[in-house]
Specification:
The chain is globular, with a radius of gyration of 26 Å. Strands 1, 2, 6, 7, 8, 9 and 20 form a seven-stranded mixed sheet that branches. It has a six-stranded antiparallel sheet with strand order 14-15-16-17-13-18, with no helix packed on it. Strands 11-10-19-12 form a four-stranded antiparallel sheet, with no helix packed on it. Among the domains are: about 140 residues, Elongation Factor Tu (Ef-tu), domain 3; about 90 residues, Arc Repressor Mutant, subunit A, CATH 1.10.10.1800; about 50 residues, Orthogonal Bundle (DNA polymerase, domain 1), CATH 1.10.150.570. It has about 625 residues and is of the alpha+beta class.
């Protein structure tokens, strides 16, 4: 067996899989170490990918050459585009997945990469030498050496599972905790803390009465995540919606004294925007009911996910409360919900490349950095994998700007602001979200992925063809007229003012009530527009309708980018700059920003502090 590799990835969750794929595809010899080869890319919680802002991240991963979008398409059982009633900056794809197939497809694709080797064990110690990280040791006593190590430990570091008054070690239900790695990392001077997350009970779908629930079908014309030649889902499975009630809430309150959330057993913070059911009814006591989303876990299983009922209450309370929910009267539980506490390392200890500041060549990605969610983890793994490869080849780090990708927003937030609660991406976190739409992720990032070496020539040709077709459509709308006799029936049907003279299609499509869909079926336009794909027509329409907003936001982004071009040398001594505020001095010393732009985004560094820095740097 080989014991020396270019890069070692610890953990085979969503972050670890993307990290291993990226670095191995670029040419590195990679070892992927996991505590269970049967659990690669397991969907430990919700069997879904995407959602608000998260869907944009998956599209960005795919555009850069990652695999999450492809694996999602291969395992999708239902697809929905969320927020279609809002502007295109808010449109977010979401896929319900077959959780077993998702994991199987990830393992299959990784095993097809001959640069990736696998080993099953727990890592208990990391080694360093004068240059930085040098290798690691496992519980079984194996020692592996590498030029770079990526830690993607998920919820496993000293993981502690809570169900009522019971608690026991585990990284997730059925899997052991990882012991030793936190102590090893802290010996180098890294600070760490504790976070919490949770999951709901799983039930037997055959025991539910779906007639008492509201059916939630997938889109009639479903989309997909990958810009490659994957297929759109067919034969979609439905999800269902039901609600809690006062009886449910009353039973849940009976268990509060035995809840680790309220009796002091859990002191760490959980995800603010995905609270447990007991937290919901405690914080929102005036609400008579809460949504429950009933979601199938796959095509060939009866196991069903009870989204919205995350809990760590005693199992008898969980069962009694569940059976009071409409449709759950005879519900049979496969396994109860639980909370889990785990170690994380505040991400302000990282450079924007996700390499640690204390140990060269050592990278952190995923929940170890304080994030929550498959998508947030996967994109960090992708960036860490790219930068780990760049590090061992003495290349500049790959860093995405906030105006280039949600991935750039996420990492910039983490390394500059840190987090003391599980970080989740939202569209509101991105100041340039009209630029960072899900439809144009390939136009923004595929050329970058191609230049790195992760995107094939074939995909670049497909992108160029798409861009050319969008431009053809826009020119067609500008030069082609529509007569009142054709336009007015459509305008009146959609409550838009009729026209008296011919107008260009551009002018008609500029109206908020009118879409390409209403034009493309009319003669004489149907024949020409049939040559273009749905995605091309949608993208052209977005560019047409939002042209002014896009231009304005791009101009704002360009102004901010100039600050990111102003570098701050590592030798700058902030202690000697007396005009800086004490808070700014402390934050700048700790985070050590690389540019003025990065410094300006650190919490506690004011505009006046930035002015002082500019003067000090001779700007």
């Amino acid at each position: 067996m080989e014991f020396t590799y270019d890069i070692i990835v610890i953990g085979a969750g969503h972050a670890g899989c993307e990290a291993a794929h990226a670095s191995a595809t670029l040419g590195a010899k990679v070892l992927l170490i996991t505590m269970s080869l049967e659990s690669i890319a397991r969907m430990s919680c919700n069997p879904a990918m995407g959602g608000v802002a998260k869907g944009q991240i998956v599209k960005e991963i795919d555009a850069l050459g990652g695999l999450s979008g492809i694996v999602t398409d291969l395992s999708t059982i239902q697809f929905r585009m969320l927020n279609l009633s809002k502007g295109p900056a808010m449109w977010s794809p979401r896929a319900q997945c077959d959780r077993h197939k998702f994991s199987q497809e990830w393992r299959r694709l990784l095993e097809q990469n001959f640069n990736i080797s696998f080993f099953q064990d727990n890592v208990e110690k990391i080694f360093t030498d004068t240059k930085g990280v040098s290798g690691l040791k496992t519980n079984l006593g194996f020692t592996f050496f590498a030029k770079s190590v990526i830690v993607t430990s998920g919820t496993f570091l000293n993981g502690l599972i809570h169900i009522g008054l019971k608690n026991f070690g585990g990284g997730r239900m059925g899997d052991a905790q990882s012991i030793g790695l936190t102590a090893s990392l802290s010996s180098f001077g890294f600070k760490y803390g504790r976070m919490k997350t949770g999951t709901p009970p799983r039930v037997d779908g055959r025991s539910l009465n779906y007639d008492l629930m509201l059916e939630q079908k997938g889109d009639i014309d479903p989309g997909k995540f990958s810009f490659s030649n994957t297929f759109n889902v067919v034969d979609q499975k439905s999800c269902f919606i039901t609600y809690t009630n006062e009886n449910v809430h009353s039973i849940l309150r009976e268990g509060f004294n035995s809840s680790p959330m309220f009796n002091g057993s859990i002191t760490s913070l959980g995800p603010r925007y995905c609270p447990s059911i007991e937290d919901k009814i405690n914080r929102f006591a005036d609400r008579p009911r809460h949504h429950i989303f009933v979601e199938p876990e796959g095509r060939n299983t009866i196991e069903t996910y009870v989204n919205g009922f995350s809990t760590s209450l005693p199992e008898d309370i969980q069962i009694r409360a569940l059976t009071q929910i409409p449709g759950f009267e005879n519900a049979k539980i496969f396994r109860p919900g639980y909370a889990i506490e785990y170690d994380y390392f505040p991400p302000t200890q990282l450079d924007p490349s996700l390499m640690t500041k204390l140990v060269p060549g050592l990278f952190f990605a995923g929940q170890i950095n304080g994030t929550t969610g498959y998508e947030e983890a996967a994109c960090q793994g992708l960036i860490a994998g790219i930068n780990s490869y760049n590090f061992i080849h003495n290349r500049d780090p790959f860093i995405l700007k906030r105006s280039e990708a949600y991935i750039g927003v996420l990492i910039d937030d983490l390394v500059n602001k840190g987090t003391d609660e599980p970080y989740r991406m939202f569209t509101s976190r991105a100041e340039y979200r009209i630029l960072l739409r899900q439809d144009n992720a390939d136009e923004r990032l595929t050329p970058i992925g191609h230049s790195i070496g992760l995107v094939s020539d074939e995909r670049m040709f497909a992108l160029e063809r798409k861009k050319s077709n969008i431009e053809k459509l826009l020119k067609y709308y500008k030069r082609t007229s529509i007569a009142p006799v054709i336009a007015n029936p459509v305008l009146e049907e959609n409550n838009s003012a009729p026209i008296n003279n011919k107008v260009k299609l551009w002018n008609m499509l500029s109206r908020p009530q009118i879409s390409t869909f209403q034009i493309e079926h009319l003669n004489p336009y149907a024949h020409y527009m049939a040559e273009f794909s749905r995605d091309e027509k949608d993208s052209a329409e977005i560019l047409l309708k939002y042209d002014g907003y896009i231009e304005k936001e791009q101009n704002n982004a360009d102004k901010i980018i100039t600050l990111d071009l102003l570098e701050i040398h590592d030798s700058v001594d902030y202690r000697s700059i007396r005009s800086l505020s004490s808070e700014a001095r402390e934050k700048l010393l700790r985070i050590k920003p690389k540019t003025i732009g990065q410094a300006s985004r650190i919490s506690g560094v004011s505009p006046s502090d930035i002015s002082v820095l500019l003067v000090h740097l001779g700007r």
